[in-house]
Fold:
Amino acid sequence: MQTANDDDGQTESDSSSPLFTPEGSPSPSPAKEHVKVALQEAPFVEGLFHFNQFLSSEECQEIVENVIDCHYFNTDQGRDQAVLFGMRNNSNSKEHDESQPNGLPHWAQMLLRMIEERLRVTYKDTINKDILDILYNPSPETEYTRQMILNIYTPGQGIADHIDIPHRFLDGIMILSFGSGISMDFAPTKNKDGEQAFSLYLQPGSICILTGKSRWEWTHGIPAQTYDLVHNKQTDQVHRIERSARFSITIRWLKIQPESSTNTNDDIAQSNLRSHQT
Ligand SMILES: O=C(O)CCC(=O)C(=O)O
Structure:
């Protein structure tokens, strides 16, 4: 593996967007810790799917503009995370129907439908019915709702390695990336079958899907650093890519549980994961 210091132009950060220009935020200091080399494509892990260029840059732009119009964020005041909830599933209906109003804003409903359609048609050779059901049609026996977490990461920010709380969220997590690319670390928790931790570069416009083993038995997290090292498979070189602001949308199924006091603690635990470079 050779190393190169130039940016190979993979990131398409949109520095003109107000979502990505947090005026007055402190400029991060250079990374101190060891920066792992990230892969452009995911190695095989049961239930993990990663598609680069899942969304076109025009689609990314439109989604970001819709989010800006909703005024969720104020990065000057540290408001860099928003959580959206849909309505609970209707236990009378057998199948979850993404085309029915679900309490989420229009742009989010459109996005959910677009992802479903694309997975069903364009990625049908990889995404089978079982995976689509996990993502779009969970068991009607459980009470659940859609949850979307929107996160802005400025360079130097990350999220601690974690497994999304097992008793709080169902199987099936989708992570969409916009703005800057970023490395995500994955590590097995069970240390069996010779599985190795790795780092994956999430490009803008990509989708990363965690189901099954990758959701329940692997941690994922984003190291708090100001740049990433990315291995280019074609040239066998490692490129240093500076981070700019990244925006992500994480889509999950949130279980509805009666014991709300536990839920509150869980929610705090889950939202405290965001980490900053020190
Ligand atoms: O923002 C991301 O890319 C990942 C977010 C995440 O892992 C989480 O909210 O649990």
Summary: DSSP finds five helices and 15 strands in the chain. Residues 2-15+35-89+96-258 form a domain with the Jelly Rolls fold (CATH 2.60.120.1520).
